[in-house]
Amino acid sequence: MPEMKTYEGGCHCGAVRYQVETDLAKVVSCNCSNCSKRGLLLNFVMPDRFTLLSGDTDLVDYRFNKKVIEHLFCPSCGIESFARGRKPDGTAMIAINVRCLDGIDLAMLQTIPVDGASS
Predict the structure, then answer these.
(1) Domain 5-112: top CATH class
(2) Which of 25, 61, 67, 95 registers the highest number of CB atoms within 10 A of its CB?
(3) Could you state, in order of their start, the residue ranges of all structural domains in the chain?
(4) Which run of H or E residues covers position 112?
């Protein structure tokens, strides 16, 4: 079972960098149009477990469908390394693109399929 650890991650060019504390026990593979086209694998954390280290003022926000999730990406390299949103009950959350975490062996993770295309 994965353990709670602090990871660092960010975009391809390094302009956006963050730290996140999570256990990677639940990694979501969503089939919505955005996630599937970008190849996102997501892990969700509370905002107090996420620290944006650099790039905050440069992030570009893209919203689609219900327009409630801030899909944030680097304007230089185009990578969406995380997003901000709310759970259905209104609680704030951060969606981490696990592919953007440093040193992660994706083959060792168990992914959970989610049907976001039908939402």
Answers:
(1) mainly beta
(2) 95
(3) 5-112
(4) strand 111-114
Decide: pTM greater than 0.85.
Answer: yes
Q: How many CB atoms within 10 Å of residue 62?
A: 13
Which has the closest alpha carbon to 11: 72, 100, 99, 84? 100
- Alpha carbons 113 and 28: distance in angstroms, whole number: 6
Q: List, as own/partner pairs, every contact residues 61-65 make where C-beta atoms lie below 8 angstroms and the sequence separation is at least 24, other chains included.
A: 64/33, 64/34, 65/32, 65/119
Q: What is the DSSP string of 27-95?
A: EEEE-SHHHHHHT--EEEE-GGGEEEEE-GGG-EEE--TTS-SEEEE-TTT----EEEEE-TTS-EEEE
pLDDT value at residue 2: 65
d(CA 108, CA 12): 22
User: Mean of the pLDDT values across residues 28-35?
Assistant: 82
